[in-house]
Amino acid sequence: MRDFETFSIKQYRGVIFDLDGTLIDSMGMWSEIDVEYLGRFGIEVPKDLQKTINGMQFTEVAVYFREHFGIRDSVEKIGDDWLKMARDKYEHTIMLKPGAYELLSFLKNENIPCAIASSNHYDLIEAVLRRHGVLPCFKAIVTCDDVCAGKPDPAVYLKAAEMLHVPAEDCLVFEDVPVGVMAGKRAGMDVCAVLDPHSADLADEVTALADFAIDDFFPCIP
Asked: Does domain 4-25+96-220 match CATH 3.40.50.1000?
């Protein structure tokens, strides 16, 4: 990891954010949904579930649940059930991470284009960004389903850079988990880790993989 004193966000021509656990404080909510959803089938959530599914496409996770837990519902039905459980929280309770609004406002004022590159569902991404008034800050929203590849494959980040019309090597990525950091690095981008309390067990690994690490976004604002 590089010394954060060398960090300057102004050196980048594009900035790409992961969503859950990075830009918004939602990882605890998804853990709750896993407990509630699997509980319907009398299944206890494995301790390593989040680590296993981190970076997967939304539909990949549904396939994993169906096959691994023996759920008979279709992949589409599983995904629809999750969306119903999550939508209310994304529209009413999920908050931005500290400093996120201020950083996005700064980047917009500096004409540094931003994108979202997430494994979440497009409708949920748009809902939470609109609720917090930051949807206009993003020139592009790309999901892993758009590129048919989950993280750590770099495809979602490369597609986001393409949509920003910025070379990959001139982009900065914000990520919170190892597979996401690896995706950004494999895309040839600098990566700043956003340490999330819900992924505290991954902090050492994510810090070792990233170029920089922060607890909130305020240190990134000049």
From this structure: yes
